[in-house]
Amino acid sequence: MASPSPEQRIVFLHVGMHKTASTYIQKRLVKNRGLLKKNGVLLPAGRQQNNNLLEAINQEHWKPWRRWLKRAEARTCNLLVSHEALSSSLHQVCCDGETSHGQWLADRLHRCGWKLKVIGFIRDQESYLNSRYTQLVKRLAVRCDFATYTTRVMQGNTISECDLMILFKWLIEQPGIERVMIPFGANSDRHGRKHLKRPDPFQQLAEQLALPEAVINRCKPARSHNQQPGRLGVALALEISRYLEQYQPIALKHHSKQLRGGIERMARTNGWPAEPFNGLDSSIQQAIRHRYEASNAEFCRCFWPDVSWGELFASQRKEVCEPSRTSEVEDIELEACRQNIIADNLPAQLLIELPG
After folding, report:
1. Is 1 helix (H, G, I), strand (E, B) or coil?
2. Could you give the CA distance from residue 318 to residue 330 in angstroms, rounded to a whole number?
3. Are strands 41-42 and 115-122 parallel, antiparallel or unpaired?
4. If we measure between CA atoms, which residue out of 226, 314, 306, 167 comes closest to residue 20?
5. Which whole-number Å values give the CA distances from 32 to 40, 41, 42, 79, 120, in the listed order?
6. Model pLDDT for residues 165-222, shown as the tens digit of each residue
7. Could you give the CA distance from residue 92 to residue 245 in angstroms, rounded to a whole number?
8. Peptide bond into 17 cis (omega under 30)
9. 107 Cβ contact list (under 8 Å, min separation 6)
10. Is the CB of residue 23 less than 8 Å from the CB of residue 201?
11. With contact defined as beta carbons under 8 Å apart, do 91 and 59 qualify?
12. Which residue among 11, 168, 281, 299 is least packed, with the fewest CB closer than 10 Å?
């Protein structure tokens, strides 16, 4: 790839959404950072640097972005920033009460002679909410059941927001910004063309960076270890977080990472991921479809005018069965697992304050 001329400099923003293989994509980006830089695409070296740029947007702080633009200019590269939380940050309103964070960033880039291209992956809300709930429970960040969680999300203004017209209306209002929205896991592309096999998300992103096919094919593979802990892993995480919320809330605040690691190890040891968590029943499924139907249709008209939402995600919209519940025996086993996880992952001074 020829190095970009000053008139062609582009900031590529990979904005997620959450639960669209972002961790896998980011691992491959970092693993191939040197190859990408040689072909005109510079990216931050790790998660913390991307976090800093996300936080700079939230605080309307330009200096960190300016530093990265100067680095890219010095290497005659375009700049790529990848963070799944950008999808839920860029639509937020700046301190002036009018300008979106996305527009703020685009305006700043334009003043410096840079263009902006936004690349997003979009997932069907039914599968998204099921997967996002699993992730948040595993992180001990949610302690309610799935039905309660979905109700709260559908009411709006949560970290799991998935109304696409809320998330991306700002982008529709900025026609000067190039944008590509990729249907994640769909059986067709955004033009309605059928996939012969499920596309690789990293390759889909790389194609939007104008990288030659030969360069994309040379990119090293990577594996994502962001695995669902399964039905029993979710139940165990709920058991632990509810227990500690009642008896030792400080442990949830300061030791959730260690506890999460213990849950993940126990899930792998017991083979729990083989039975994935599914919180959807017919009632919840229909409520989700009804809530987002109009917004999804409008999103398609704006971003995917050649195809309907139902056509894109038909393969994922299967009829659901009543979700599995833990049995009495499993409940007893999970209580023992809870005690083991807590004993192995909390400091002694906190353990002595727990009952029993």
Report:
1. coil
2. 28
3. unpaired
4. 226
5. 13, 11, 11, 14, 20
6. 999 999 999 999 999 999 998 888 888 888 878 899 999 999 999 899 999 999 999 9
7. 31
8. yes
9. 99
10. no
11. no
12. 281
Which residue bears the tokens 């595993």?
138
The CA distance from 121 to 172, in Å, is 16
Using DSSP's 3-state secondary structure scheme, residue 178 falls into strand
List, for residues 21-64, the tens digit of each pLDDT value.
Answer: 999 999 999 999 999 999 999 999 989 999 999 999 999 999 99
Given CA atoms 168, 172, 175, 181 in this order, what sign does their dihedral have? positive
Please count the residues of the chain: 356
pLDDT tens-digit profile of 114-170?
A: 999 999 999 999 999 999 999 999 999 999 999 999 999 999 999 999 999 999 999
Domain ranges of the chain: 6-124+161-218, 230-276+326-351
Give, rounded to a whole angstrom, the gap between the first and last alpha carbons of the chain.
Answer: 65
Q: At what angle do helices 125-138 and 282-303 cross, to 10 degrees?
A: 110
Which residue has tokens 């059941």? 145
* Range list of β-strands (E), 212-296: none
DSSP string, 110-128: HHTT-EEEEEEEE--HHHH
pLDDT tens digits for 295-328?
Answer: 999 999 999 999 999 999 986 655 666 677 788 8
Q: Taking the domain 6-124+161-218, which CATH number applies?
A: 3.40.50
Token pair for 216: 């994309």
Helix or strand holding residue 81 (H, E): strand 78-82
User: By C-alpha distance, which of 14, 288, 243, 1 is closest to 131?
Assistant: 288
Give yes or no for residue 266 having a pLDDT over 70.
Answer: yes
